[in-house]
Amino acid sequence: MLIKYTGILLIFITLCMIGRFKALNVKKELMLLRELESRLVSSKLSLKFDKKKSLDIINSLRETSELISDPEITKLMENLYSKVGTTPLDGQLLLFEGCEERLKLKLDEYDKNVPVKFKLYNSLGVLAGAFFAIILI
Length: 137
What we know:
By secondary structure, the protein is mainly alpha-helical.
């Protein structure tokens, strides 16, 4: 009997932790987006002063953007990577500004959704754990 309750408790705790893990991943994604935005702004400024650093700038941005799972942002950044260095400086700066504007819109959307998703994943983990615990009892 004690083993049964211990197993139920472990399942409950495991499902709660899975929900917590998913909730923390949502917050991590938001932090990565903010970091990508700040790197994009600093890269644009860096490009203004040293045109030869475009490859270094792309590598720096790519490190952060590869960690983000949103396909829209991945597509946006790949578009930027493919065009940087192939256009004159004014065109490159316009590319960075356009990318920065779209990234800010995405950040605003994430800012609205993160608290809701965070609570949702936490609650879902607890409810799933409670559901399986009740079924096993």
